[in-house]
Design goal:
Length: 136
Amino acid sequence: MPVLLRYLWALPATVPGVLLAVLARASGGEWQRVDGVLEASGGWTARLLRTGFPFSGPVAAITFGHVVLGASAYDLDATRAHERAHVRQFERWGGLMLVLYPLAGLFAGLRGGDPYRDNPFEREARAAERRGWPCM
Ligand SMILES: [Zn+2]
């Protein structure tokens, strides 16, 4: 898929990510752009990530389309391979990921697994994490 289409397809998820990145920046956080992805760390969103979510507990980072929010710059570095796998998932599934991801976690839980650890999107991201972040 051409690069522009990947960005457009993921845009429904990128937009809320940008809004959260703006909140992070406005509350003392920082931005950086790495390989076409906006990464935001610190600020209000860092507090949200450290508090966590019902399905996962505290997390170091989360991806919305082409935006990755991290608790800190260190967390962004440490989770880059994992979160880039999620970016590729958003490029593949577009805004549908906002529905597919929680549904996949729900079905994992209904099958007796862990809604976070056994979510197939997380399994794929952990596999990418083990392969590492390609160096150029
Ligand atoms: Zn993940």
